[in-house]
Amino acid sequence: MLKFTKDTAMKVLTFSGFLQEKFDFFLNGHQLSRKGVEIAKIFESLPLWRFIPTPASTGRPSHSRLCILKLFLLKSALNVSENKMMRDILLGNTEFRKLCGWDEVHDVPSESTFSRVFRDFAQMNIAENIHEYLVKTAFKDKIIMHVSRDATAIPARERSERKVKKKKVKGKRGRPPKGALPKPKEQTRLQKQLSWNLDEMVCELPIKCDWGCKINSQGNPDHWRGYKLHADFSDEGIPLSFMFTSASVHDSQVSIPLTLMSSGRATYLYELMDAGYDMTEIKTISKDCNHAPIIKPNNRRSKIKRSLDPASARRYRIRTTSERGFSELKDNYGVEKSKFRGYAKIKTHIGFAMIILTMRKIFQFGYVLEKVKKEKVA
């Protein structure tokens, strides 16, 4: 049984100036390892039972969904890419196996059970719901200074969807008659988003696998097949919200949904974005949500070169937190080398990585999560 030892509690001053209480974790009388202590703190801080549906009372008893949910969080924390490798770790490591909730080796389910339950978790958006709860709880009654927004490429091991070209309707040849009204131009996606709610924006964004192109830091185009991850990061590098779209979706098309999503989870002042987000609609929505947008001017098509004022340019330097956040997700959580196929599964895999990254940042900077009384789960 996992428990705290209050007798050995002590105050520890972290490098960021926060006072934290340090406890020793014991499992069946044996002190946990350093990695085991971190996993135990994550499991103790998260009310995972709130996000799992009640199992059916008839038929054969199913494997514990709570234990399997802990397994996928442990998988992201250890940066393991395959279910087979994760199962071998559980069979050989008593500490990790008992932290997930399985006492004996024969209690660990098979790989096919892991895959089937992961599919169910992907359909329920369970990872996204847990991450939303984390952000709302950690930043309750707190103000964030800056939110850095960016997008990154997520390659996928699947075929790209063929795009169907729209046939252009040819009009009458020749000059239009005198007094004829010009044809109304079709509204862009950003213009439509001004009158849509968040659910309508999310449903309209493409989510199929296709090809994308992005200019790298050296100024050269990078092409990839897969998807694109859009996210907002706080000053400490905590991901506030994220969205997952097709690779061909431009960064600016997801800015307004991210603004509404992050505003509903936390209170912040400034939004930092690169030149790809230099659109009038994005600035309008940001100001309507009581934020100050700081966007690098896009001078590609403008005759007069624009630049940020000195105060905004100084704040804009903080935008590198988003780039460091994406780098950490790819290097330490295997987001870029996902073995899954399909939009829902890859998004859930990224969601579990976001949860572990958020929890580690919360522990690092001393944020407090509200304690929820555990209810009995059938």
How would you characterize the overall build of this protein?
- It is a single chain.
- This protein is α+β, with helices and mostly antiparallel strands and 378 residues long.
- It has 13 helices and 9 strands.
- 38% of the residues lie in helices and 20% in strands.
- The longest helix is centred in the last third of the chain and has 23 residues, at 343-365.
- The chain has helices spanning 34-45, 65-77, 83-92, 94-100, 111-124, 126-138, 189-193, 198-204, 255-265, 280-288, 310-316, 320-332, 343-365; strands at residues 2-13, 19-27, 30-31, 143-155, 210-215, 221-233, 239-246, 267-273, 292-295.
- Strand 8, helix 10 (280-288) and strand 9 (292-295) form a beta-alpha-beta unit.
- The strands form 2 sheets. Strands 4, 5, 6, 7, 8 and 9 form a 6-stranded mixed beta sheet that branches. It has a 3-stranded antiparallel beta sheet with strand order 1-2-3, covered by helices on one side.
- It has 2 domains: 2-54 and 63-124, no CATH class; 143-161 and 188-340, Nucleotidyltransferase, domain 5 (2-Layer Sandwich), CATH 3.30.420.
